[in-house]
Structure formats: C-alpha cells, structure tokens
Specification:
Elements: H1 3-34, H2 36-47, H3 53-76, H4 84-94, H5 97-102, H6 108-123, H7 134-146, H8 149-168, H9 177-252, H10 255-284, H11 299-308, E1 312-318, H12 326-346, E2 351-358, E3 362-370, H13 384-394, E4 398-404, E5 407-415, H14 421-438
Parallel strand pairs: 1-2
Antiparallel strand pairs: 2-3, 3-5, 4-5
Helix pairs in contact: 1-2, 2-3, 3-4, 3-7, 4-6, 6-7, 6-8, 7-8, 7-9, 8-9, 9-10, 9-12, 9-13, 11-12, 12-13
EC number: 2.7.13.3
Organism: Nocardia yunnanensis
Protein name: histidine kinase
Length: about 450
C-alpha cells in the first residue's frame, strides 16, 4: 500500500466528514433557536432513554437557573464577573443546549466531570447562603437515572467527597452541609427509582411484544383450523355429489338425478366460498358482513347435506340445546363437520353414527363409522384430529380417536360452565323424571338416507 498517496485521500475524507458534521450542527442550531422544545424532543428520542421531554428540559433549566444565581451571588459579593464564576457558568451551560445542538448523547463521565469542575470553581469563591452545591444533587440524580447502579453510586460518592473537601477547607457553609449531603443521597435514590422504572418499562414492552406474537400465532392457527374445516367439509360433500352424478349418468342414465346432485354440489361450493371469504377477511382487518357462526341448531342441516350426497348417517341428539353457549355450539359443529368429512374421505360407503348427549355439566359427542375391508389404523398427517384437539383444549375438553369394536370412533367431552353441582344434579334428576313420565327423550333427531352409499 502506498502511504504517501493514501494520506491525502484520508485527510480529504476527514475534512469532508467534518464539513458535513458542521453543516448538520448549523441546521440543528437554527432549529434550536426557532423551536428548542422540538430539538430537545428529537435529541431525547435519539438517546433512547424514554424519559419525558419536559423532564429533561426541566432538569437543564434548573441547572442553568441555579448556576445563574450562583454567578450573581459572586458578582454581588465583589468577585470579578469574568473570572472563575463565569467559567463555572460556562461549564454548566455545556451540559445542556450544546449537547442538543452537537447531537452528543449524555455521557455520565462527561456530565460528572463538567459539573464537579463547575462546582469547584464556584466554591473556590465562597459566599454566604451559597446554592451552588444544589447542582451536585441534580446531576447525581440525572446520572443515576441513565446509567448502571455501580456508576451512579460512584458518581454520588465523588460528589459527596468534593463537597466534604471544600467543607474541610471552610469554603462550604457548615450549616447547609448536612442538608446538601442528604440532598445528594436523595438525588441518587430518585435517580435509581427512575432507572428501575425505565428498565421495567423495557421489560414490559418485551412481554407485550411476546404476548402479541403469541396472540397473532394463535389467531393464525384458529383461522387455519376454520379454513381447513370449511374446505374439508365442502370438498367432501362436493366430491360425493359429483361422484353420485357420474354414477347416475354411467349406470342409470338418470339425468335428473345427476342434475340434482350437481346443483347440490354447486350450492355447497358457493356456501363454502362465502365462508372462506368471511374467514380470510379477518386477516385484512376490514369489517366482514355480519353473519352468525354455525352452532348446535345447524348440525341437522350439516347431516342432511352429507345424507343428500349419499352417506348413510344415523344421527341422534338428546338434551336441552338452549343452555349451550354459541362458543360451545360452534366447537361441536366443527367437530361434527370434520368427523363426517373424514368419513367421506377415508371410508366412502361406510355406515356412520353420530350421538350428541347434552348433560347438565358436560357434553358428550360420539361419531363412529364402520371400517372398509382391509383398513389399518394409520396416524393421520393432516390437521383433522390435531385441529379438533386444539379446539377442545381451549374449552377445557378432551378428545379420543381410534379403532374400537371394528369401528373408527371419535369421542369428545366438553365441560359446560355456569352451573353449581347441586343445581346441575337437580336439573338432571328432574329431566330424568320428565323423560320417564313422557316415555320419550327430550329431543330426538334422526336422519336415514333415502339411497344407499355410492
């Protein structure tokens, strides 16, 4: 590398950076003259300490006011105005507006040195009722509020040592000395409180960010489950209708039956598209058209869709559905929808049976179907069973799925809330008595297909 040729380039680069920095400082100086509060706000935001701008401005004004009064005290006492007092005042001024104009971040060591030097110059010219040591109290609190506890404590000890030194030389008021010493301790304590509050604020922001991420992830999973349930149901029913139409055209040449099956497939597809648009619309934040979520009363229509598509389903529900909340009703509906869609997908032509038992303190849902010949139990890789378990886990329910007595069976239990055990037992007993007296269940719904499976 040629050092001789590189040195002028380096010097030119340094000069260019210096000119740019001076130009930026000139812009900030003009902005400070026009609107000092705005420049203070920009400077405070750049420091990253998150203290109110009014607090920072108030601290600097207090420092300048106390220094100005201390300067006036020495001029009134007969000291030359252009001597140590003016230099002390200039040092205090350097800790305020120049840092804003030059865009210097607050450095604890620099603030401590400038302040201690300023107070030393003031105390070198003792006066009666001197208030110059108040600057030590303020700067101790300021440094303790922006730095670590060890550094803040060291600065407080240094401030007290300086005050003690001038007290030993007789340059500090002996009556006010204990109050100044207590003031330094109070300033350090106040700064520590502000510092801890600032740290807790950062910690709370991190926690809120984590909670927001968790909530967003949970919402995405919920929307994914909703979309999966809607698509699985609609595609299963549509495929059944299309298969029925193909079967009618190939075997029976029954055009009317094929047209009916295709019309049902079209209706289910349009309904599924509307449901998907409503669910996906939650992602963009725009208000979706108000439409009630499906619930317990819609399960009968759900079963009817699958029956019209050719599935053989025996459905029965017992109990009082009026006490079921919309959230529980939606969960039961989605589990029934997913279970029937899985039967249509994995066991076409199977005989299905679905039971909904509404008890006083819980809800039992049982969906089972016959297994096709040669079927083996294989763990699913999709979102079906896991999605149903996640949906029930939110409500405190449980779900079991597997082969039992040559049938594939899905059993779900969801606890209900809002009832005391004694009232639930009384309600269940009364319901049993009424059922026995009437010789029929409270609610019975049954669907038997009009045609055999495809």
């Amino acid at each position: 590398m040629n050092v001789t040729s590189a040195t002028p380039e380096s010097i030119g680069q340094v000069r260019q950076e210096l000119r740019e920095w001076l130009a930026e400082c000139a812009v900030r100086a003009r902005g400070f003259v026009r609107n000092p509060v705005a420049e203070y706000r920009r400077w405070v935001e750049n420091t990253g300490f998150d203290y109110p701008v009014s607090m920072v401005v108030l601290v600097d004004l207090m420092m300048l006011t106390i220094s100005g009064i201390s300067f006036a005290q020495r001029v009134a006492a007969g000291y030359p105005p252009g001597g140590l007092a003016l230099a002390a005042l200039a040092l205090i001024v350097l800790t305020g507006p120049p840092c804003v104009i030059l865009n210097f971040p607050p450095r604890p060591a620099l603030l401590a040195v400038l302040t201690m030097a300023s107070v030393a110059l003031f105390l070198a010219q003792p006066v009666s009722f001197d208030i110059a040591p108040l600057v030590l109290i303020i700067i101790t609190g300021e440094i303790a509020a922006i730095t670590r506890t060890v550094i803040g404590t060291a600065v407080g000890v240094a401030m007290f040592a300086e005050l003690l030194l001038f007290r030993a030389q007789g340059h500090a008021d002996g009556v006010a000395f204990p109050w100044f010493a207590l003031g330094i301790l109070f300033g350090w304590f106040t700064g520590q409180l502000l510092n801890y509050q600032r740290r807790y604020l950062y910690q709370e922001r991190d926690y809120q960010h984590m909670r927001a991420l968790q909530a967003a992830g949970e919402e995405r999973r919920r929307i994914a489950r909703e979309v999966h349930d809607v698509i699985a149901h609609s595609l299963s029913v549509t495929l059944l209708h299309v298969t029925a139409a193909r079967h009618a055209l190939q075997t029976d040449q029954d055009v009317d039956e094929a047209v009916d099956a295709l019309a049902d497939a079209e209706r289910v597809g349009r309904q599924a598209m509307a449901d998907i648009r409503r669910t996906v619309g939650l992602l963009d934040g725009h208000p979706a058209p108000l439409r009630p979520e499906p619930g317990l009363d819609d399960i009968e229509d759900l079963v009817a869709d699958f029956v019209r598509a050719g599935m053989r389903i025996e459905f029965r529900a017992t109990g009082d559905p009026s006490q079921i909340s919309p959230g529980l009703g939606l969960a039961i509906y989605r589990i029934c929808q997913e279970s029937l869609a899985n039967i249509a997908k994995h066991a076409p032509g199977a005989q299905a049976e679905m039971r909904i038992l509404l008890h006083a303190r819980h809800i039992d849902l049982i969906v089972r179907n016959t297994l096709p010949a040669g079927t083996r139990a294989r763990p699913g890789r999709g979102m079906g069973v896991s999605g149903m378990r996640q949906r029930l886990a939110v409500l405190g329910g449980t779900l079991a799925a597997g082969i039992e007595d040559e049938h594939w069976q899905v059993c779900a239990r969801i606890p209900t809330t809002g009832q005391f055990p004694c009232l639930a037992a009384a309600e269940q007993g009364l319901r049993s008595v009424l059922t026995t007296m009437s010789h029929k269940p409270l609610t019975t719904m049954s669907h038997k297909p009009q045609q055999e499976g495809v």
